[in-house]
Amino acid sequence: MNQKAFIETIAALAVQEMARSGIPASLTIAQAILESGWGASELAVNANNLFGIKGTGPAGSYEKVSDEVVNGKKIQKKSTFRKYNNWTESIRDHTDFLLKPIYAKVIGANWKAACQVVYDAGYATDPEYVQKLIDRIIRYNLNQYDKETNPMSTPTLIIDPGHGGTDPGASGNGMKEKDINLQISLYQYARFQALGVPVILTRTTDISLTPEQRTKLVRDSGAKYCISNHINAGGGDGAETIYSIHSDGKLAHQLAEGLKTAGQNLRRVFTRQGKANYDYYFMHRDTGNVETVIVEYAFIDSTKDDIEQIQRDWKAWAEAIVKSFCAFIGFPYKPPEDSPQPPSKVVDKVSIEINGVRLAAQGYLQDKVSHLPVRAVAEALGVVPVYDPTTRQVTVNNHDLTETIEAGISYAPARELAAALGLQVEWIQESKTVKLMKGCVCT
């Protein structure tokens, strides 16, 4: 691949990630050029690793000897690097890597400041690293991509999956709030995209965001509205929506009515003040002019029916929010495609455990075959599934799956999905649970 083609390939992805994260596209492109030698390095070729990020990636790991600078001296050191299935995964992981709190100042920074920030935070040990990045940005006019117009760079809506990473949020009944928040948000993101509503997310994987990072992403997104998804705790029952003291509350009420129509109990719609003329919740107080509504779908520690409903009805609730939001902004709404749907008379809900941890997502049993939600299972293991909208083919770890689409969600047979992820699978008939695990299944 020549240099022009390489830049164009990386730039298209870097601009998308800039819209999602606020990280300058020019920095991403310059780092890819420098770290991967224009895509020709050993890591880029053998591990699809464009940025030299260490650790274990979606496709495993790759060991190699690399140059390091220690106490001003260049040494060679054998290290383990992340391996990806494709460059798209590498670029997205680079974004998530730079969303760590130590790199907070890179978000929304100009390209020159961003180069300095990543070095100061310890991204590289080469004392000439900053100048090397700056030289490449200037030489190839990469800062032009920081101004690139992109439909998603001026979204109507930004969806915020609350908590994440080291912050699990509320927990109860074997579930973590951060996981359910992300599951709901990813579903809504896909649905809004399918409907044509310009939308972005504050996070797409299980990463940590400080309150400052989260609110800056919302504030700087250009979006008019924000839906911040949460699951409640404290032993109550039903849904709540919360709006700013500076809002008329109309959106919050419309979203609440949508959840009520979808079958969830409506606990209350309210606003809460902190000190005089200030919102109590930072997602209202610090998100600027963005109309932010916090949606609490249910209680994770409920002893009533919320727990069963979270597992059974989360998708219906997520869709209700999509429909209600479209109605609020006057945007045409179409329900998700119902075909192919598993016939209800032969379907049972299936619980999912991965290495002993129960997922909030559920599968279904049809004709004695368990079908599991591909994205929820794959992302729980740090693997990003690839979807080709033209062929409607879902691929995991380079394995094409036999999928069924239900309400916009891809499902695949449990054993087929487990094989693609390198896991063993066990069926527990009594509890209708599919257990996925590493290593052998001992009976």
Question: How is this structure best described in words?
Answer:
The chain is 35% helix and 24% strand. It is globular and about 65 Å long. With 443 residues, the chain is an alpha+beta fold. Helix 1 (3-21) crosses helix 4 (87-98) and helix 5 (111-120) packs antiparallel against helix 6.
What is this entry, summarized?
This protein has helices spanning 3-21, 25-36, 42-47, 87-98, 111-120, 129-139, 177-195, 211-219, 250-261, 282-285, 306-329, 374-380, 414-421; strands at 61-70, 73-82, 157-161, 171-172, 175-176, 199-201, 225-232, 239-243, 266-271, 291-299, 348-354, 357-358, 363-366, 369-373, 386-388, 393-396, 399-400, 404-406, 409-413, 424-428, 433-437. The chain is of the alpha+beta class.
The overall pLDDT average reads 87
* End-to-end C-alpha gap: 51 Å
CATH superfamily of the largest domain: Zn-dependent exopeptidases
CATH class designation of the largest domain: Alpha Beta
Secondary structure tally, helices: 13
Q: What class do helices, strands and sheet pairing give?
A: alpha+beta
Please bin the fraction of helical residues: 25-40%
CATH domain topology of the largest domain: Aminopeptidase
Assembly classification: single chain
Radius of gyration: 23 Å
pLDDT < 50 runs, ≥5 residues: 149-153, 338-346
